[in-house]
Design a protein that fits this description.
The protein has a single domain, classed as Lipocalin (Beta Barrel), CATH 2.40.128.110. With 225 residues, the chain is mainly beta. A hairpin with a 2-residue loop joins strand 7 and strand 8. The N terminus is likely disordered. An eight-stranded antiparallel β-barrel has the order 1-4-5-6-7-8-9-10. It is elongated. It is 9% helix and 66% strand.
Amino acid sequence: MKYFLIIALASVISACGSSKPDPESEKEKQYKVTVTKNFTADTVNSVITWVRDVENKVVNKEIKIFGATTTVNMQNVKFSSNGDMPLIEGTLNIIDDSLADISLTVSFTMIRLYSNNSDQAISTEEFPPSLMEINTIVADTIENQYNLEGELTIKETTGPIKFPATIRQDSTGNYVLNGICQLQTLNWPIREEANPENITYDIISLNMNVILNEGVIKRDSIELK
């Protein structure tokens, strides 16, 4: 009889032990909600312009003046040109109230002085759309001031860019980006067969005033480990 009771008691204890809840399975899962706000560029009211300042040490070129061909041989030639860069499209992403990334696609037409492909003194060349992608946005010590870093693609060439900018939210809730990005043309496919020894400087400044309107708001739930 005692033997039977011991066996029965052991069975009860074993059964109770097997029904004990798993602490891990009962642990309440926690989630974080990430809010992404997408702003779309106002291509009508945004303005992007460029200014190019050049000083060539030596210029040798045959050009046509009043229908006649003449050879130009000049030293320390300075000239400045400018134009618009119509904004084709652009976006700004804000994740949890922090500026995350910016993308701008622009149309770019360059004014050339003494182009290799033209016998005119001044000519123009239309480039394929150029893409600027900013993936690092670091706040400065001054309110609404940021240091932007990313890449710019002109023709088939992609290279790093870095410039300061003001990014602020206006009274309507839209964001406005103001900044100047300077490019050394020798690093980009802008000059034709450039010889650095004949160039004192050749700088293009991209002046940006971009308006971005609020678009899609997306919420994602991420499980915390």
